[in-house]
Design goal:
Length: 278
């Protein structure tokens, strides 16, 4: 068993002085040569490093929030973090006229700002400090750092408009001729995800590449799994990937019918095999 740590007079004098300069418990413990637990067990009256806001600053928070300012703008004005502002605003109660503020439009971060974000991150700056210095959101800074400063790929944003009926009819007609999702999306100007939703809603199966769908609402034709009501393209053996696994496990026969699990004569359970009856 190791002997307990003893604080010298120099250490007792040095601990409050380091705390006044803003040092954390970890930094003080490393400088003294003990652990944080040993440091916290001894009563040194170190206090907390949390900033204490004056009433005037709290009134400024509420006033700026009522005007529609974001948490980041308030944090920059008061020289603190967004989390501190969020906690103080919640503690002060609900703020009126907050739901009526207009939402800012999405804007692309310039390449010059992206390079500055990467450079500051390499120098050891935190996401929050970089955001306050460049006027960005911390989540945006983190995304830029994770992508290495590269600009994002062009995205399709939902504009809230419903797909017209004539465009839906054209999507169905193109799918019946065997067009893929990517080709339909390029011709009609609709995203591939929306194309898939429209086709599934009108009775078509999932992604079947270049499949000639004949008949009303994508009826079963040559090339689809032999199991009834499946509607998925097979992989050469007559089954789709799911029913192919079922066939190899001995659950169905070559026609897609369920196989018995017990013998017809004695009633005993036998191991799975595609050729089993007795």
């Amino acid at each position: 068993m190791s002997a307990p740590f003893t604080f010298t007079k120099e250490a007792i004098r040095r601990i409050p002085a380091m705390r006044k300069t803003g040092a954390t418990l970890r930094q003080i413990a490393e400088a003294i040569g003990c652990s944080r637990t040993t440091l916290s067990e001894h009563v040194f009256n170190l206090g907390s490093l949390r900033r204490r806001f004056k009433k005037e600053e709290e009134r400024t928070m509420v006033a700026m929030r009522k005007r529609g300012c974001t948490l980041q703008e308030i944090a920059i004005a008061l020289d603190c973090s967004e989390n501190v502002v969020r906690r103080r605003v919640r503690k002060l109660g609900p703020v009126t006229l907050l739901n009526g503020r207009s939402r800012r439009p999405w804007r692309l971060v310039p390449n010059r700002s992206r390079a500055q974000v990467v450079a500051l991150r390499k120098r050891g700056y935190t996401y929050e400090k970089i955001a306050n210095q460049l006027g960005l959101a911390p989540c945006t800074v983190r995304t830029i750092v994770m992508r290495g400063g590269r600009p994002p790929v062009g995205k399709r944003f939902y504009n809230g408009e419903k797909t017209p009926d004539d465009k839906i009819a054209r999507i169905i007609a193109l799918r019946r001729t065997g067009s893929s999702y990517a080709h339909i999306a390029g011709v009609t100007g609709v995203s591939p995800a929306t194309v898939g939703k429209i086709l599934r809603k009108n009775g078509f199966p999932g992604r079947i590449q270049l499949l000639r769908l004949a008949g009303p609402r994508g009826s079963r034709v040559r090339g689809i799994c032999r199991v009834g009501a499946c509607g998925v393209r097979h992989y050469g053996s007559g089954f789709c990937w799911y029913h192919e696994a079922q066939y190899r496990q001995g659950r169905i026969d070559k026609n897609g019918k369920l196989l018995p699990t017990t013998c017809k004569d004695c009633g005993k359970t036998f191991p799975r095999s595609p050729q089993r009856l007795r």
